Amino acid sequence: MNYAAHLGYWKIRGSYKSTDDCEDAKGAMLTLLAENPVKMPDDFADLSPAVRSEVIESLVCIATDDPRLKGW
Fold first, then answer.
1. pTM of the model
2. Structural domain boundaries of the chain?
3. Higher per-residue confidence, 23 vs 68
């Protein structure tokens, strides 16, 4: 993964009404990965377990009005 990539290149994994909702979803994904990885959402199915873990652990919640998204 390219952690320095512009946000416009990031894959959106979900949209939430608030930061708390986003953080809750992120926590739920980490729990699911740890407890029952076979039930991960389909958009993670094509990833190897190591990559899936790295992706889940690096999820970031950003606001839709984040200035880094300007022009994308």
1. 0.72
2. 7-69
3. 23
